[in-house]
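Second attempt. The first submission of Aminopeptidase had a stray character pasted in from the spreadsheet, which I only caught after the job came back as garbage. Lesson logged: always re-copy from the clean sequence file. Corrected sequence (885 aa) follows.
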Amino acid sequence: MASDRDILPSWIKPSHYTLSIHDLEFGGSFNYQGTVTITTNITKDDGFNDIVLNSHDIKVQSAELIAGGATKLAKDITYDEKRQRVTLDFGEKIQYSGEATLTIKFSGFVNNIMAGFYRSKYTPKGEVPASVAKDDEFHYMFSTQFESCDARRAFPCFDEPNLKATFDVELEVPKDQVALSNMPEKEIKESKRDGFHTVVFERSPVMSTYLLAWAIGDFEYVEAFTERKYNGKNLPVRVYTTRGLKEQGRFALDNCHKIVDYFSEVFQIDYPLPKVDLLAVHEFSHGAMENWGLITYRTTAVLFDPKTSADSYRNRVAYVVAHELAHQWFGNLVTMDWWSELWLNEGFATWVGWFAIDHLYPEWNVWGQFVTESVQTAFQLDSLRFSHPIEVPVYDGLEVDQIFDHISYLKGSSVIRMLSSHLGEKVFLQGVADYLKAHKYSNATTNDLWSALSKASGKDVTTFMDNWIRKIGFPVVTVAEEPGQIGLRQQRFLLAGDAKPEEDETVWWIPLGLHSGSSASSASLHKTTAMTQKEDTVRDVDDTFYQINKNLTGFYRTNYPSDRLKKLGEARHHLSVQDKIGLVGDAYANAVAGYGSTPGLLALVERFQDETDYLVWSQILTNIGNVRNVFSGIDDVSEGLKKYALKLVSPAVERVGWDFKDGEGFLLGQLRAQLILTAGLLGHKGTVDEALRRFDLYMSGEDKSSINPSLRGGVFAIAIKTRGESAFKSVQNEYLTTTSIDGKEICLRAMGRVQTPQLAQEFLSFIFSDKVAMQDKHSGTIVLSANSKVRIEVWNFVRDRWDSDIFPTLSGNKVVLERFLRFGLNKFSEESVADEIKKFFEGKDTRGYNKGLEVIDDTIRSHAKYRARDEQVVREWLKANGYLG
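This time the job returned cleanly.
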């Protein structure tokens, strides 16, 4: 057994499962019975007494092994709860090698914590069959979520990614409900239970346990077919929903069949299953899950109503559909060998998901969006001392949930983008296709991908990429100017700006993307393409204009001299959207870390008042919002920064107006929503007055069309901030009664704009009532935590209600608990709060969310250091520029 991981004994491996789920109680207890027969291969020459499998919250009733014609019954069944295992002891030594069949009878429970085999509550539309599970208030659908290690919550199994097998599944269900699984229905068998039958599904291909899935409910669907033929047929593609919602699946459906065809061509391997089902699940811990052939989604990631949904969800649905479809090849067909290489699945699917959306919607400027969302978010987490490498050691399956984070997804996809830009997209995708062909229906490692890409490109990709994948952090490249040349120095970027020598030993391969020339419009690529040492000098640079990391394709920060930053700001109209995002993002990060200064950032951003691009504005408003957030506890500086921000956005919000015109671009609509929200919260009079006028028309019922769906969030938030309790109650009622698929998320975020401790506590109590689904409990808390007026109430609530509400409600699913804490507590900039949080969790068993606590601590202390260092210079700049009296 490898000492760096805790895995099952290697002498027994599964090859096939036959799984039957039956006697499911659709009301009351939600218990079920199950039988699993596992065909195994045993290679233990010296014999064995017992067999160990994974099992969690499952009661094994009996187990028998048929080996070499002899049948052996388990005499003793014991559980190791901590390691989530069951040991079947046969009471004697069995001398056997070869194929053997293990049959286990067990019972389980359909839980409500969004892990394993679980139930989701919902309010139905239309008539519901009597058999559908319900209580006094809600109806329920059943579905599964097995990644990373929760197949073992549904049935005993060998629950590790490289223990692949085929699966035969059968589900006993009421005749008036629908059963789904990875494969199409094969036959229906009669059942002994009155009103029930058993649905039997076709055999799956070889796959990991975490990709198995099934669902039971009152489902209906919309259907389309691929344009390409697969084995002579156009594949059926369906979006399933509970009754009454199927029409909202049409946008996802339209994207899905096109993307299946596109990926089949890009990867040079036909989609390998006979169908693609997408299922909207009412309660869901993540955004979606790539189960092979039965992809599950939270409703807001797959359903979209053009009449009532905010347009931002159009983008979200398209991207999440593409991301999960990418996994059908990259993850499902070829699976990482062990959880330490999770990034192979998630980093690639993130990059290629955006790649597909760029193909379908070139007018969305997908790579600009990627740079302002994915790259900048990855920078944020990776600039902490407590980050982790992209490829991180995972001792056991229970550790893996915490690396489903921005490093695996967003840093992973950012370095994939960096590599594909360097190799060229065509060469890169050829290498990926070769990798998939070589390892299909099997498992692979990072090195397998690098060797396929090296072969396709003729370059040593391992040398380029090893430090990016296996070392923590990323560099900042500091530029020094001399006539006709520039000096470059790379060092590890830490938000706290205090990397110690032993933390700064990595030498990254850095693609420079250096352009220079007599002007921004005529600059061309420099012959020096990469930096491969700590310090370097690049000669023959025309310093009239030069720029490093063109289009921000390299995953690093650039620290220019202050005069150069000013010149780049002056040349901004000749820069790409990605360049502008990089310029502002780097100036902000360098200010926080102390490599640059906040006055330099403020002066640079002031020039962007005439900017018209949504993605650039999004970066500016995020960064200026963060600066305001850090200095919010210092009254005069806070007031000066508010005036600065208001002056910055006023011309833009007045220019963009309130009306959505026919044929207007998606990005312009997003810009309008962002500017109205920001200007209204800053107190821009015209925006506030118009928002309140529309709010009253909408809430009174006089004119429900007074608020465009994309502006609901902004208008609700402005009303709550301005009017307080009366508006809060109106939006709370909207939350309880909305039928819009995105309405609940939008209301929760708006309610986070409350301005008094009493309303903040009332809102937090509401969040922890059964009115708010577990999947959404972080949605309002994110906004509360960014709200300087009441931020401290989030910490007070966590501290005072930890034992009574928070831990009991969220601890069943540590992913949800960790997310709630990280987003709720990471916006403080006072060391005293960091000390309190640290002390509170000392002595508690924090396994499953300890990394989140490290991120919170590091972030708060970095911001506290920044605030202390820059307070006086920010005050002086604000005074000198007329923002402070």
